[in-house]
Amino acid sequence: MEYYKTLGEKTVDQLEEKDLFWQYNEESNSIAIIVNHLWGNMKSRWTDFLISDGEKEWRKRDMEFEDVIRTKEELLIKWNEGWQCVLYALSSIDQDNFNTIIYIRNQAHTVSEAINRQLAHYAYHVGQLVYIGRMIRGNEWKSLSIPKGNSLDFNKKKFSKGRHGGHFSDDLK
Q1: How many domains does the chain have?
Q2: Which domain of life is it from (predicted)?
């Protein structure tokens, strides 16, 4: 999860405030709209996730796709609130509650299934953020992983270190 959080942040860092509200057309979502949706989903899914349905009664999903974020500061507040909720909930998982059955829209999930469901959902939307960012920045885009044409050099460097216990997100550093 932290890897996808970092990808989103490194995308937003490359953009001007106006870029966060750019839409390809009226039917497409801006980065701000996607962040607002992620925030609503994260707050709903991960608040009391072991004891209440992940689709909270207070969630207003349809409003998540409206232009409600007005500034980069507001976007970052929602981004961080959402991820804080996710990461806090994940940190509460232990051997005593790992086998708990939880519900999302009244459908039973193991903790692993729920995590995988949300991981796929967040990766999907963070990929959209990155893609929009790349479209906006064009030739000025700074690669978030292996720069185009540098795969051989990247792999040579990685394999020269021998096996290590590094974290997947270390590739972003």
Answers
A1: 1
A2: Bacteria
